Each structure stands twice: as structure tokens, then as C-alpha cells.
User: What shape does this take?
Amino acid sequence: MENSSSNNRFRSAVFNHDDEDQDKEYVGFATLPNQVHRKSVKKGFDFTLMVAGESGLGKSTLVNSLFLTDLYKDRKLLNAEERITQTVEITKHTVDIEEKGVKLKLTIVDTPGFGDAVNNTECWKSVADYIDQQFEQYFRDESGLNRKNIQDNRVHCCLYFISPFGHGQMDGENAPSVDEIESLHNRWLTKRSSKRLQSHLRPLDVEFMKALHEKVNIVPVLAKADTLTPSEVKKKKMKIREEIEQYGIKIYQFPDCDSDEDEEFKQQDLELKESIPFAVIGSNTVVEAKGKRVRGRLYPWGIVEVENSAHCDFVKLRNMLVRTHMQDLKDVTRETHYENYRAQCIQSMTRMVVKERNRNKLTRESGTDFPIPLVTGGTDSETEKLIREKDDELRRMQEMLQRIQNQMHTKRDAY
Amino acid sequence: MNQQASVGNAMMPDTVVSSGVGGMYGEKAGGPVDFSYVGIDAILEQMRRKAMKQGFELNIMVVGQSGLGKSTLMNTLFKSKVSRKSVLATAQEKIPKTVEIKSISHDIEEKGVRMKLTVIDTPGFGDQINNENCWQPIMKFINDQYEAYLQEEININRKKRIPDSRVHCCIYFIPPTGHCLRPLDVEFMRRLSKVVNIVPVIAKADTLTLEERDFFKKKIREELQANGIDVYPQKEFDEDAEDRMINEKIREMIPFAVVGSDQEYQVNGRRLLGRKTKWGTIEVENIAHCEFAYLRDLLIRTHMQNIKDITSSIHYEMYRVRRLNENNTAVAHTNGLPEHHLTAHEM
Assistant: This one.
């Protein structure tokens, strides 16, 4: 069936355009987006999502809820003794999802063991290393000779799970009002003595996010939000947003709306920006509530509906991640994080090479002594060129420095 | 019972209600809520939005002797005055002494889709007495565009979107002699088909009757094959059976016999683009008269993206590999390679 329709596709493109041909101005390149469309559908898409946070915050459940998968079926949960010696692992699960003809190769990168140990110093290092490795692999592939089928394993988004059991009493008369928090914000920067205004981001959260915010898009998520009342959620979100800004953490920013978008879109966009961190609840079980079946969690005091926006931000998160911002997440990874890595990589390579060069006169044949992670052969020429350019620049700078120094000397002698 | 199920199987999909969560491949559960729809097809819409915002680029080169209607054809294709002659009011009609390369860019828009169209004209091609090596400036131009793109790509601080000036398609105009290809045609197409997509067309096809046209086309196809010239759509780049089928049909029709016109005439109550003669009016967009519509559909409505893809993923990649290897061999030897060795690479 598919074949016969494509059979006629070329011919019909000619015959069925009479109406449009009447339109004197119609050329036909408005079909370009569809042509691109068709190619992408054939190729399929890929997306790599990382989840990080302490154990027990519902990461696995959320991932399964988001993509309707059961990636963690055969998982064995370790008990406390086994966990004492465990280091942070990086695990990858890949699943192919297809919907309405669109294929997505989804990779979930998990970080079991994160934050579980007694001493968690630098436990984010293996995570950062993993992300860098993917960048390096892509850099190598991109610089290589055969670029036909480059696999993109770069991490496009990292969901960081923040525990809802933060410090600070937030109910009763002791709770500071929203206005109070706002007005005390400045004072907080100088003295942090008030017990009521304790931080909601733990030191580990801050360190992790600061270590990774320039390598990957971080989307903070408030886990197990069903332990909080709506007002608690609201206050917590605001506090966390403030703290993120205060600590200079650069989380993923939603792109601004164009001025010509419709009002509904702008409203949605604004709501999205104000929902960070997303307060989520995950569930893979379907329960019966008031005669209808919903995905949720059943408690004696009621049913939490995962897909009810009044209950939690699950739908917002899913829509953002899958339906509206997936492409942008990939774009920012590609255009900003990867480019930063690449620039740093090239610069550090040329620095190393210049150092080596100054130490011993190298001949071109010993190019293999350089710790350059590039394909031997092809890209030595590019780095050679860059090296030459950097050499010249260095020489010019040195000459300039020398001149300035001489000037200073003469000035000094003059006194 | 439900309570137990939900508490006990918190991590695994619920087996009590199997038709709900288990259907991750498009099955619909009963009721208004679709438990099985994640929404990944929305990524197509996201891509579309992005493409519309960014706009597209297309670079077409036209090559052929003067007087074959190249400029008119470009104007007809894009229904606006995009050719060099239309833009440069003071365009001289004198034939230049050497082959010149002249690019004109236009921003055109249709139904919200924006395109930066660049038409690259090559006045002087094939017009001299001695036309040896008249393809060289053209080859150089094409390779220069590849080089510019390569330089941008290996830069440390790259632009977000590298401006694409690579020639996506080269339309080669064959004069309607009715016999066969001339040596110049063969020489040019043989060399250029290795670096760019060539679309040969029979120019001013209103001088050929249908039988003459079919005969001419058959001869041309035979000669192209005999000389090993691969014109667009190239057989080896067909991706799958579906593509192959569509492209085979096209390959049976090339070269397209075209007639260009930017003047309208009244025919049967409609205003159409055409050429009016004493014995009748040739309707440019009428496929019974000429094959302009096929060319337009190929270039613009169906294969435009494909043409760009083949340029970037095949022709450009070949250039890049050649350049990188070339540089490498030049670097490995302490003495530079003799001149003729290097130029041999470029041809």
C-alpha cells in the first residue's frame, strides 16, 4: 500500500497542482518543511535523559511513568550494608518507542549510588566524567574521516531530583509568609541565622548542580511531591528558585516566546517558567477513582492522580520534556554545552602541544606522542593549523609583553 | 485488592489492569484518558517550528552557452525576477572573455516558509573559440565554497548555524541540436558530476517535435551512461526501495526538455506563462507541451531537501576527506609535494 502511493507520488505532484498553479505566485517550496519531515520520520530521533538524585526519591518510577516503559523490571535493590561500599555507577537503558509512525530511541542514564554513601565528597565526578566522555566521543567522530553514521550519545537533559524533606518548618504560625521571604531575601545574603529560613537545597544538591550546569541542561525536579500541601509546594518552589539564583546555578532556561505567538502559548510559557522545580509524583499503577480509571497512588485518605495538574506537575514536565521542548534541549546541548567542551578541548590540546614543543623540538613524525584524542591522520592537519595560529598569537603576545616590560624598565630607570 | 496491588508493585507496571499501561505501542485503553500515549510525535511539530523560524537556503548554479534561456528559466522557476539579468539593469550583453561567476541572492517567502535563494550564473561558459578548461573556474568556485564551509567547521568558536554557500545543484543547459551531446557537454558533465549534483536540461525545447525530443533524450542518456556520468538523481545514492522507485521514473525522463517564459498570455480564458508564436502558444506549465513542470517539481516540490542532503553528506564529505588526506600527506613529507601532484588531486 505504501509502495503504490509513493509510486504515484512524483506523478501526482505534477497533476494535482492545478489549483495552486492558478495562484500565479505559488512556486511550491512551501513543501520544504514536509520534505525535511519525511526524512526525519524515516531516520527516527534519539534522546538521552539522565536522572540523578539520592536513592528512594522515585526516579525510576518517574522515568517509567513519563515514557510508559518498564525499564527497571529486573532491578535488585541493595540493602544498607551492600550500599556502604558502593560507588556511583552510571547505568544506561535504551528503549525504542514508536508512536504514530515516529520512532524515538530513548536512552536513560541512571546514577545509582549517588549521594548514598556516608562520605559523598565528589560523588558527582563520575557523572561529570561520563558526560565529558560522550562529548569526547562525539568530537572524535565529528573530526574523523567517515561521518556517515555518527551516534549521538550526548546527554541532552539531566533531571535532578530534590528531596521534599528539606529543612525549615513550613507549617503553622511559624511559617514565614511569601512576602516575608521576599523582603528578607537581601538580609539573608548577609546573615543566615534565622532558623526558619533554612536552605532547601542541601550542600550536595548545590555542588552537583554547580559541577554540571555548564555541561548539561539541568531541570530540577521536586520529588515525591505528595508529601507536601499545595501551599508548602508553592513556598518551597520559590525558595528553591531563589537559592538556585543565589548560588549562581545555571539551570535550563526555557526559550522566550516570540512576540508573534498567540496569547495561549505565551500564557503556557509563563506558567512553565514559574513551575520550576517541577513538583512530581510518579506512578505506574492504574487505580479506580470515582468510577474512572486514573494513573495514581492510592492512600487511605484519597487518591493522588498523577496526570491531574491540580495534584502535581507531572503533566507539565512530560509535556515540556517530550512534546514541546525536546528539540530545544537537544539544540542547547549541541550549540552551547558541546561547543564549550569542544572549544576548551581544542585550546587545552594546543596548550599541551605548545608546552611539549617548547620542551623538546618535535619532528612531525612523532605526532603520536601527543595525547590528542583525534583520529591520527586526518585531523592532525587541523590541529597543526591551529597550533601554528596559536604559536603566532603566543609569539605576538610575548613580543608585546616584552615591549611593555622594556618600557616599564626605561621608565623606572628614568626616575 | 487495588490497594495491595499498588503498594506491592510500586516499581512495576500493574498487572491487574493490563490493557492500560502495557500498551505502549499505540493501543488505546478504554475511556477518555489515553494511558498509552506519550506524545513523541510532537517532536515533528517542534522541528517544523524551528525550521520555519530559521528559514532555508538554496544555491543553484546555471551553466550553459549564452542565449540558451538560463536567466529566463530561473525567473520562471521562481516566478520572480531572480536572475542576474533582471537584477543588474546595466548587464552588458557582451560575451565576457573568460568564464565569470556571478551570484545573486534573494530572500523569498511562501506560506510562511522563508528561503534565501542564490542563483549563480556563469556567463562566458562555452562561448569562446577555444573552450578548453572553461570548466576550471566553475570547479574552483564549487571547491571554494566547500573550503569555506570546512574552515568554518573546524574553527574553534563556530557559528551556531554555519552559512551554507555550497552549490546544491547545477543545471546544465544542453542546446537543442537534436543529435547528441557535444564534446564540451561531455567534458564538463564528466568532471562536475563528481563534485556537484548535475541536472541536465534540454534548453529551448520548443524547436523539437515530440519524436525528435524522445530520440534526443535517448541519445543523451546513452551517452551519459557510456561516459560514466552520474547525473542527479544518482543511482548509488538511492536510500531504499521507495526512493529507488521514484528516482527510476525520474531517470527515465531526464534530461527534461524545458521552455522558459516570464510573459503571460490568455489561453482558454486563463492567463498562463507561455511563448506566443504564429502557429500557437506554448504553455510552459503544460506537460503536454514541455517538461518544465517536471523540472520544477523535482527541484522544488519534492527533491529539494534531498538535493541539499546529497550535497552535504556526500559531495562535501568527499571534499573534506580529500582535503584532510591531502594536508596530511603534504605535512608528512619534509619537502613539499611537487605542484602537479597537488593539482591532480583537485581535478
